[in-house]
Structure prediction request, 337 residues.
Amino acid sequence: MKHAEKDLSAYLDGELGERDRRRIEEHLAVCESCRRELDALERVEDILLRGPTLKPSVRFERAVLRGMRNLEEESAGFFEKVWHGILSPIPAAALMAVLLISVGLYVSSGGMRGKEDYEIAESLEMYEEYPIIRDMDLFEHLDVLQVMEEG
Amino acid sequence: MIGGKTIDDPDVRIMLRYKNGDEKAFEEIFRKYKKPMVNYLYRMVGNEGRAEELAQDVFLKVAEGRRRYEPLAKLSTWLFRIATNVALNERRREEYRSAHTSLDAVEEPGHTARGDMTTGGKEMDEIVKKAVAGLPDTQRAALLLCTHEEMSYRDIGLALSVSEKAVKSLVHRARESLRKTLKGVL
Prediction:
């Protein structure tokens, strides 16, 4: 049977299935070299676990808990503003009025231009050949426009 | 849920309580994981003060992300995944700083403890610390999660975004490397 070095770590960690575990144990029973290797890996493990362990400082604990509470307060503050501030009856009515006025002004100023408007603007020379475009200033007088359409 | 299975982890239930607004649940998680987290980060970056700062980052990321939390793995796996990312980013920043400051400050990697060295407790700790620091980042992370956090290869794989087979290899190579580096003091 070939040596089992590559599986020894997994064996040490209890990560092998029943069949592989038995195979390694059978090999270890007859292989001095792999037993030495396993022993060395166990000593590495021991030496790592014997190392110092830090105790988190009080300052660290306070900083984390304070940070968490600040985040919660910021988050709660935001939702509170939304629910109790903006959406309370009087400011909500004011907000709605402002929104309606803004949308009205925007639409009446021709703010919502569609794709067709841009196509016309880009090919203005072509459209200038049409009388209705050439005589654009007449548009101010609806009766004149109606006469043109009838004509 | 992993592959459609519900995760049976009491810590996940605590995290779900926190997700639903129970601040006490965060304190429970913090009490349980503060020490392993600080120690894991200390072993990853090798500096006590920085380890606490990074652990603070990890817990604040948990707090910031609580509403988006989904129980896709054990809570410990999720926490150490965040911690590993934080530690690896710190290592990259450190490397960048070292490369852009003095070359004298860069410690020689791969140093070996000599056989004739007599080692006291602190000296021995220092030798082991340096040997662990000399491991490649993913090997070090896999070994620390395996040895100190007693995580399974499967969970380590989830924490490091690598396969179980890769974890087996990473842990083995890390131990082999330490066995050689620490030959004189074992």
